[in-house]
Specification:
It is globular and about 75 Å long. By secondary structure, the protein is of the alpha/beta class. The strands form 4 sheets. The protein has a 6-stranded mixed β-sheet with strand order 6-7-8-3-9-10, with helices on both faces. The protein has 2 domains: 247 residues, 3-Layer(aba) Sandwich (Rossmann fold), CATH 3.40.50.300; 119 residues, CBS-domain (Roll), CATH 3.10.580.10. It has 16 helices and 16 strands.
Length: 406
């Protein structure tokens, strides 16, 4: 079936198709791809062959100068092939004009690339305008995309300089999704974000991917990010040579060469934590305490719980702090407990990030919350240790990394 843009490049006032009932993804195949630059003795890419199934995330990872960004930019003809071919759904990228091809492929870069003189809404609407969408259709799509990436609707009239780095990055993702592309290219999209927001953006993006199921080719230099984000990982070495193409568990358990083993690192066992999510674990039950309720009732719950430390929550079930003995000596649960609830762990976090948070806050426990911020249990260092030695952990680690949020 020929590869076509999922939204036709023609004018029209039809209501925009919901992104949650998105068009199908397209497979991406590199066939003996080579790229030579004038004046260079060695090719930047040498006979690269790999296939990304429709709906998967393929991460290209490797040291600087290994050709991973070159491989990415060849797919939308930002640079041209010297040899070989790239097929989208079995059709060569050479069969379409480069400009038309790019309008059907989402593209996100580290520097985000928003136009500073355009509002957020106008930035998102760049490609739809090129395709002559009507004003009504563009407005509806911008509204839908802002909701999809969890940004407020009134942000459409702000300018990039008014947003945080993480917010600008989400706008970049929204712009790449504007015409519902079956393929997205992402070049170190979270590389310029601070570690805390980077983790949140990664998790948000994986949630989004579980809904949209786009085919994504993703470049990073960070092996931990590659293992976390990728359904498949392509490890490249200098000279544009593919050293190994495998699922994250295969990569960690069976590195194909000394180079891959060294690049993945000696802590391969710990990196298995990146293949498992907090929701895979049977969490502990904490005695929950509502603000304003009698502390005598809270004390009565402690015996039935898995740990002796009551956790105060607000009216919506969101954690606000651990109760100390001084808090419990009061008649009612205070609105501001003595001990912070941090770190608050997302149920969809990978275990590596969750354990890192516990260690960073020098604590044994962290309340786990769902997508609405409500407490669903408590994670502890002890739980993680026991889980890693269990048969269930071994079973999950040998399968592809989970991508569907629950």
């Amino acid at each position: 079936m020929p590869f076509v843009a999922s939204i036709p490049a023609v004018p029209g006032d039809a209501a925009p198709k919901s992104l949650r009932t998105t068009s199908r993804a397209a497979s991406v195949e590199y066939r003996e791809v080579t790229k030579r630059y004038p004046g260079q003795a060695e090719p930047a890419i040498r006979s690269l062959s790999l296939e990304v199934p429709a709906g998967d995330i393929c991460v290209l990872v490797g040291p600087s100068g290994c050709g991973k960004t070159t491989a990415l930019r060849l797919a939308n003809r930002m640079i041209e092939l010297s040899g070989g071919d790239i097929l989208l759904d079995g059709v060569s990228i050479r069969t379409r004009p480069a400009a038309e091809l790019r309008r059907g492929i989402g593209y996100v870069i580290q520097q985000i690339g928003l136009f500073p003189h355009l509002t957020i809404g106008e930035n998102i609407a760049v490609v739809p305008k090129l395709l002559n969408w009507s004003r009504q259709r563009i407005s509806a799509r911008v509204k839908e995309l802002l909701e999809l990436v969890s940004l407020p609707a009134d942000m459409r009239d702000q300018y990039p300089a008014q947003l945080s780095g993480g917010q600008r990055q989400r706008v970049g993702v929204a712009r790449a999704l504007a015409v519902d592309p079956p393929v997205m290219l992402m070049d170190e999209p979270f590389g310029a974000i601070d570690p805390i927001n980077r983790e949140r953006l990664q998790n948000q993006f994986l949630r989004l991917q579980s809904e949209l199921r786009k085919t994504i080719v993703f470049v990073t230099h960070d092996i931990d990010e590659a293992i976390k984000m990728g359904d498949r990982v392509a490890v490249m070495q200098k000279g544009g040579v593919l050293a190994q193409y495998a699922t994250p568990p295969e990569l960690l358990m069976s590195p194909a060469s000394d180079f891959v083993e060294d690049f993945v690192g000696a802590d391969r066992a710990l990196k298995r934590l990146a293949l498992l999510r907090v929701r895979s674990i049977d969490l502990w039950k904490a005695p929950l305490a509502r603000v304003g309720e009698p502390t005598s009732a809270v004390r009565a719950r402690i015996a039935e719980a898995d740990l002796p430390h009551p956790l105060a929550v607000d009216a919506d079930g969101r954690p606000i702090g651990w109760l100390s003995e001084r808090d419990l000596a009061r008649e009612t649960v205070p609105a501001k407990p003595d001990t912070s609830p941090e770190p608050i762990v997302d149920r969809d976090d990978v275990l590596r990030d969750a354990l890192s948070d516990l260690l960073r806050y020098d604590t044994q426990y962290g309340p786990v919350v769902d997508e609405h911020g409500r407490v669903v249990g408590v994670l502890s260092v002890e739980i993680i240790s026991h889980f890693l030695s269990s048969n269930r952990a071994a079973e999950l680690a040998t399968g592809p990394a989970e991508r569907v949020t629950g």
